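In the design runs reported in the main text, the only information available to the sequence generator was the tokenized backbone. The following block is the verbatim input for one such run; it is reproduced so that readers can re-run the procedure and compare outputs position by position.
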């Protein structure tokens, strides 16, 4: 058996979107092992030096591997019935108050074994990967007991072993009030702080801790208790905030140094200022906006003006965003939120990585992890402009070619 040993790979004449911007001239991209070695303008390429590298092709667009920084990919069941109810005029909040919504998925998730949860999540994960995702955050939050939340986090970790993708796990114990604590939300928050967070930390199951700060979920004061417990275990924090109303959850999360605040349709000036000061990333979720037929826009113009970094994610989940196509989110971010294609793409690369506290991926720059996507398009804006599967030509994860040849 013979095989060729390549010391590296090279793409020539590609348009490079580096995670923040499109570089001005055609570039060569050189990968050695698991790392991006160099990105160099074609005019300066010493091609003889790379003659023995594997020639991966020329033309097209290269972007960082996509980063989907907010998903709820692991869950049991589905909620097509609620989709229909909402179309008949019942609101998302009303469904939640009737004990459906998140709690309906909690019921189905508790019933499911780890194997069943893996089995049902894999096709969803595969859909993200096929659309260019190299890093995905996966939240718990449909278990709502110590055992079931740990089960969800173990499943999420396992998904990262079964597929060539980086999984970052987030404990979202404070997502909804489980039926056992129906009249004791403080008691449940106590459980999250005293047992869930320590247990996840002890077992290395969570990379961050998230909360749902909302009238149908937890108050600002309760979320702050969760933040304190997370920080006592050295876990970074995030928040679902200002999605359905303005409680001031974003400002509170930012003051606690949150990596990100997510949704933000009802965000006000004080929240934006707190984010700016803290460097908290605004994670925008146009899939949930679209699915819930929300009309209140997140304040994109003001966030942009304040220089708050903006990420874009799928929020993939069975209720508010059963949408598993990251490049569709680029389109929706532009069409619904009027982000620019450059902002949307940065939101799913460099800023998505920042929302997860990652510095070694999400950008195309020498020394970073060779997580990259080569697309058969002419300019990066086409990714947001057209919703068109089949454009991902090659995908590399940590230098390994997982898609194309
Ligand atoms: O990000 N906002 C809260 N949580 C999820 C929805 C979860 C669900 O409806 O199952 C979200 O939209
Ligand atoms: Fe969410």
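Verbatim output:
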């Amino acid at each position: 058996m013979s095989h060729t040993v390549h010391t590296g790979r090279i793409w020539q004449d590609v348009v490079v979107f580096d995670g923040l911007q499109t570089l001005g001239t055609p570039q060569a991209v050189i990968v050695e092992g698991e790392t991006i070695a160099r990105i160099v303008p074609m005019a300066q390429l010493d091609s003889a030096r790379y003659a023995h590298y594997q020639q991966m092709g020329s033309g097209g667009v290269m972007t960082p591997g996509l980063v989907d920084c907010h998903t709820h990919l692991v869950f049991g069941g589905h909620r097509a019935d609620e989709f229909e109810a909402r179309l008949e005029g019942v609101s998302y909040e009303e469904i939640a108050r009737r004990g459906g919504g998140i709690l309906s998925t909690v019921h189905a998730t508790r019933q499911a074994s780890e194997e069943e949860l893996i089995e049902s999540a894999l096709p969803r994960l595969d859909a993200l990967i096929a659309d260019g995702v190299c890093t995905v955050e996966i939240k718990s939050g449909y278990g709502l007991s110590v055992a079931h939340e740990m089960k969800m986090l173990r499943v999420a970790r396992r998904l990262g072993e079964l597929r060539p993708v980086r999984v970052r796990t987030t404990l979202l114990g404070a997502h909804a009030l489980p039926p056992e604590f129906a009249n004791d939300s403080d008691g449940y928050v106590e459980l999250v702080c005293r047992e869930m967070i320590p247990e996840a930390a002890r077992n290395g199951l969570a990379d961050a801790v998230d909360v749902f700060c909302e009238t149908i979920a937890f108050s600002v004061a309760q979320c702050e208790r969760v933040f304190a417990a997370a920080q006592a275990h050295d876990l970074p924090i995030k928040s679902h905030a200002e999605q359905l109303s303005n409680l001031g959850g974003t400002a509170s999360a930012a003051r606690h140094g949150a990596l990100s605040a997510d949704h933000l349709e009802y965000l006000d000036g004080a929240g934006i200022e707190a984010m700016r000061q803290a460097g908290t990333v605004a994670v925008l979720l146009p899939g949930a906006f679209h699915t819930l037929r929300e009309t209140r826009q997140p304040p994109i113009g003001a966030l942009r003006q304040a220089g708050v970094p903006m990420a874009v994610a799928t929020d993939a989940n069975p209720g508010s965003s059963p949408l598993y196509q990251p490049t569709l989110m680029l389109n929706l971010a532009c069409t619904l939120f009027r982000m620019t294609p450059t902002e949307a793409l940065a939101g799913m690369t460099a800023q998505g990585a920042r929302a997860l506290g990652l510095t070694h991926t999400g950008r195309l720059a020498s020394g970073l992890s060779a997580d990259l996507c080569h697309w058969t398009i002419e300019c990066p804006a086409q990714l947001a402009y057209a919703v068109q599967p089949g454009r991902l030509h090659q995908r590399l994860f940590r230098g390994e070619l997982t898609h194309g040849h």
